[in-house]
Amino acid sequence: MASVLKFPRASKNLLACRRGIRGLYEHGVDAGEELAIGLSGGPDSLALVIAARAEGHEVLALCVDHQLQEGSAQVAAEAASKAQAWGARAKVLRVDVVDRGEGTEAAARRARYEALSKAAGKLPLLVAHTAEDQAETLLLGALRGKASGMSVKAVSEGGVVYRPFLGLRRAQTVGTCVDCGVDFWSDPHNERLSFRRVAVRKNIMPALGEILGNGDATAVLAQAAAMVAEDNAYLTSLVPECARQPQDLAVEVIARLPEAVGRRAVLAWLHAHGEAHPQWQMRLSSAAVGDVLRLCTKWRGQGAVAVGKDLAAECGEGTPEGLGAARGVPRLVVVRLNGTLTVTTQKGH
Question: Can you give the pTM of this predicted structure?
Answer without folding.
Answer: 0.86
